[in-house]
Amino acid sequence: MIQRRRRRMVAVDKPRKILVCTACVIALVGLLTGYVRVFPSPRASNSSDPHKLPTQHEFNYQKLSAENKWTEEVAPPHLSEQQSSPHLPKAPVSLHKFNGAGGNLDSEKLWKLPEARDFVPCIQPSSNYTTPDKTRGYLLVRTNGGLSQMRTGICDMVAVARIINATLVVPELDKRSFWRDTSNFSDVFDEDHFINALANDVKVVKKLPKELSSATKIVKHFKSMSSFKYYRDVIGSLWEEYRVIRAAKFDSRLTNNDLPSDIQKLRCRACYEALRFAPQIEAMGKVISLTLISIHFLASSACFSLFIVLIKFPILQLLVDRMRSYGHFIALHLRFEKDMLAYSGCTHGLSNAEAKELETIRDETANWKVKEIDATEQRYRGQCPLTPKEVGIFLNALGFPSETPIYIAAGEIYGGVTHMADLRSRYPLLMSKENLASVAELEPFTNHSSQMAALDYIVSVESDVFIPSYSGNMARAVEGHRRFLGHRKTISPDRRGLVHLFGQIEKGLLKEGSKLSNRIIEIHKNLQGSPRRRGGSVPGTKSMESTHSEEAFYTNPLPDCLCRRASQNVNTSIRESNRKVDRSMQKEQLKVL
């Protein structure tokens, strides 16, 4: 009797579980397809009462200077008519519907990925690579510079620690540079992941052991662009007298080429796998997993397991997803910020008062060695960032229509509205983290330049097309990362060639139109991120000048960390590819120099 009752209960319970699972799946699908309405921007929730007074934080935000106000002119499409914040007027409906490709061949070419995309990451160590055993001492590192300079320096110090058989103490981030950022390593990077991901390569600890805190340390200035032999023999010999070595400077301390293959691959593992951004930054910039308040209705364990599998899949991208709601988009690294212009001495298009302000900043910044700079000469050598106006002319000449969504990966643009006016008149859909996210969403990162730069870095890597206005540290780091991920389209402006064309326009010798467009397209047909070998030193240069003329390792990790997929005609294919790559590399190298 009891057994019959149990069978009856099982018979009833089984369809109940199936019904519950079905309901779960339907609810989940509905949730996924309507995620924007389920998870509105905090800005949206705050705007329901038009008569509500702003909080002190919101009031301070509304008082931002003109440098930021150019970012507040277009509401992203994830905010509905009812949800839009009062200070963010909506973009025209036609712009919201823009779909990058636009259905015609010319537009498709704009977003088309570079050819020969059959290179894949190959960063596994060789068969004779060993895990770290007992190390000889501890390596302390204090980073310097901005986010990308710190990233590459940290990865190089991982390689150095391997070479000299050291335990690496988690690096201290720069808190003394121009930006005065107080962030610690764990605020910007995923510290535990960094340590665990490198467990088979280098021993990493969070702090120096207490028993060594009072030990004698040697502060060593590692030579710039140094070789494997220098670190193994010269720096390695210091272990005979010291247990702790502190690197006085850490950026550009390791040569780009002529290192053992395993060391080069380690640099890539450190940069593209171990050095991951902190979870809160990754979530804001790229991936956020859905969370629900209540799951009590998941009565079935099988349904619950299915739900957990689906819920862990990254389904909501914040900044990236909001940009993609416009269609294909460009990430523009617009390096027209006060610190960049002051450091480089570039004043084209600025007022006399602005030029004087930048000169004062340069004079008063002690660690900037060069004080007297000829702005005109600097510009015609191609060593100045393109101005926002020049970027607009450049994009138009390449064929990007005015409806193109553009993410501005930058800090405060110098001059704000004044200097952004021409670019905005050409391309109204200029977006940034400040107007894609609400004040509340950005608040944890505000006043931390490295964390804000990390958000820009993520969107830049994930964009359909990346265009830097200047080949600085971030531009090079993003380009290299995009190459590593499959040679995503990166258009590198030939600034020296463009400046001469822009000069002719200013003198009335050349007009915008098909002639200018054809010339700019021709100049840049081989500057769009296609696979090529990393450039070596410029012929005729000697010693350190020769080393510094090399293309940076993290700008182009080919051939060390990228290999061609196997094919039937692999040898012929590789030889032909290498010939094309070498010719392309030589042309690009000469243009950069």
UniProtKB/TrEMBL annotation:
Keywords for this protein: Carbohydrate metabolism, Fucose metabolism, Glycoprotein, Glycosyltransferase, Membrane, Signal-anchor, Transferase, Transmembrane, Transmembrane helix
Major site of localization recorded for this protein: membrane
Known pathway: Glycan metabolism
Highest taxon, organism lineage: Eukaryota
Localisation per UniProt entry: Membrane
Basic and acidic residues biased stretches: 576-593
Any one GO molecular function term: glycosyltransferase activity
Cellular compartments per GO CC: cytoplasm; membrane
Keyword Glycoprotein: yes
Any Gene Ontology biological process: fucose metabolic process
Stretches the record annotates as Disordered: 529-550, 574-593
Membrane topology, record value: Single-pass type II membrane protein
Family assignment from sequence similarity: Belongs to the glycosyltransferase GT106 family.
UniProt-recorded name of the protein: O-fucosyltransferase family protein
Organism per entry: Gossypium raimondii (Peruvian cotton)
